[in-house]
Amino acid sequence: MxxxxxxxxxxxxVALLAAACTAGLVQAPAQAGDVTADDNRALRRQLQELTxxxxxxxxxxxxxxxxxxxxxYRAGVAxxxxxxxxxVNDHMRIASTAKAYSGAVALQLVDRGKLRLNDTIGKVxxxxxxxxxxxxxxxxxxxxxxxxxxxxxxxxxxxxxxxxRRRFDSRRLLDFVADEPLLFRPGARYAYSNSDxxxxxxxxxxxxxxxxxDLLARLVYRPLHLRSTSLPQGYRMPEPYMHGYDVTPPxxxxxxxxxxxxxxxxxxxGIISTPKDMTAFIRGYAGGKLISxxxxxxxxxxxxxxxxxxxPGRNKAGLAIFRYTTRCGVVYGHTGNFPGYTQLIAATPDGxxxxxxxxxxxxNKTNKPELLERLRAVEENFVCxxxxxx
Length: 390
Hints:
By secondary structure, the chain is an alpha+beta fold. The protein is 32% helix and 15% strand. It is built from 11 helices and 12 strands. The protein has an 8-stranded antiparallel β-sheet with strand order 2-1-12-11-10-9-8-7, sandwiched between helices. The N terminus is likely disordered.
């Protein structure tokens, strides 16, 4: 597989790390009543139209689950040059939806008394820069910490550009910005940062003496029966997988599935999973099955802020979770984007209805702003189908 040029890789990374919210879309009110066959056909058509739009993904899959009933919508192919459709057991890079998994670990440790939301970096990770010591676990989880983003650091980007498959020491990623002060006073405002979830994972390790990968297995994978989810260090994808592409017309799509090492994103976006496992995760996580009511009450204290890319409707940030207020109602979830992939996972607050929405190219407000608005409109229509009677 050819590796993209250094310029392409750098542009992909810059797009991945862009942060800010996109304005909510204004649409007509939803019609009350049951979901009809015409509604289902419309959703399939909209998914197909995303795959044929300029810069759109070669493949897409959406999984709607209402209690025990599952509906799968597909468009395009899992790999260009084949006619194989994407399946629910195909692996994919879940991008920044992995931040919800680090939240699941940290909040369970809060429940178990191993961590407190007001614990500071200075208390738990005193080896990190003194300028960061006042930052709390709560502020890391809702992106109000002010930590500088290591993944936007020029030295980090230069190393990735030189060798996209470089294996980083994931636990030393914050070293790239260790000489930098906070961007603002902790808690003063919202700023999405990949550094936050690296620090969360390090706090979890320090509090337990266990590797973050082992904590994921014990606290997330096993309770939710996630059998195809992992956090690798290398660039290989497990078979079968949906291939991710750089789609930049007029150039032909270029397979970037195995271009980048996951070690450089680790707890902020390195997890590999499947639509089936992602569905199980978000139903349990958004539904509050992993944590106590007391901790969940703290998790759902919202601040102004959007996921990256912005999810459907109006976005608010909680602790490693976002609230998406659509024209049809509210769901909780997370989004993510990574070279080759764009993700949305969402579920109702009781976890009984869920949506997993995956595309095989990267779409965000920096690289494809018009397509992102179109994507958010389609995602909102899927949320509306999810929330209506079935």
